[in-house]
Amino acid sequence: MRQQRLSENLFTRILSGEFAGISLLYLFFALMAIASTIQLYKTLRNPESRAEPTRVTTINIPESWGLTGHLFRLELLLMWRNRRPRHYLLVSLLFSTMYLVFMLAAASPFGGFTYAALLGLFASGGFVLNYGQLMFSWDSEYYPALVTRNIPFRLIIKAKLMLLHTSCAVLFLTSLPLFVWFRPDLVPLHFAFLFYNAGITSILIMELASRNTAAIDIGRSGGFFNYEGFSAKHWLWFIPTALPPVLFMLSMHSSPKLALIILATIGFISIVFTNGWTRYFARGLQARKHKMIQGFAKSAG
Fold first, then answer.
1. What is the pTM of this model?
2. Alpha-carbon distance 292 to 30, whole Å?
3. Which of 13, 107, 110, 125: CA 20 to 30 A from 186?
4. 8 A C-beta contact, residue 226 and residue 220
């Protein structure tokens, strides 16, 4: 009922031409247009630019984190200092704030917890689903140098999983006030999918990312229509990633609380066994090392 009232209140104001509703709608599209225009202007002004001027942004990591901490720091710096990775970060934050408002206020087109499962999946897992798909392609320019150094693959994987897990927590906290305000009944679902996204979605996306062989120019504009590095498998991989929790919630519609407990438990157990996952992916990277290097070099050339 609360969802229906919010939806009716928002869209009735828009359809009736009230100033508040129209202003909110125009504000959303205006911000999207401004962001797109700025990105387009930068691309047209200097389309051949491979990288922006060196930024002075620094990130301090405790020395107790060791080599894994330094690799995690490099992931953060790469993401923030380069256009394309930074674009995915900003889009994830936008989705977890402004766009999420419209999704929470709108009526569910699929009904009940099925639609809610999609909300939970994207609210805290949006960064994983977007940025994570190209995780190793971001490193394509210097990947040969990275893997020939005395750095265990296990630590490289661990640093990347740390980034994905951290993103789930950050987006969870960012979108939590919106769930509390618009749909307090979905707060338990938001908590459950925090663990599911960190424990399961991250692993499924890492399985895809660890098989990337297409290079990416991270200095180019991140534009909404820049699909460099993507292939058919990246689009199709969304099905085995998103469909299982949605179908599970649908099958458990009579016991939604139990369904959330099961999803959260599965995610938590997977997080506990993170070391096992890192060893699994490290073995895969070791086996595909030469294939990935050759793929990055061929697609870059």
1. 0.78
2. 41
3. 13
4. yes
Residue 221 CB-density burial (10 A; 0-12 exposed, 13-18 middle, 19+ buried)? buried
Contacts 24+ apart (CB under 8 A), 66-69: 67/151, 67/155, 68/155, 68/158, 68/159, 68/162
**Which pLDDT band holds residue 4 (cuts at 50, 70, 90)?**
very low
pLDDT tens across 173-189, in order?
A: 999 998 888 888 889 99
Residue 206 has pLDDT above 50, yes or no: yes
Q: Residue 43 and residue 134: Cα distance in Å, rounded?
A: 21
**Does residue 1 have a pLDDT over 50?**
no
In this structure, how many other beta carbons lie within 10 angstroms of the beta carbon of residue 243? 11
CA distance 158 to 279: 9
Cα–Cα distance, 85 to 218 (Å, whole number):
7
> 3-class SS at 107?
coil
pLDDT digits (tens, 9 = 90+) for 27-37: 555 665 566 55
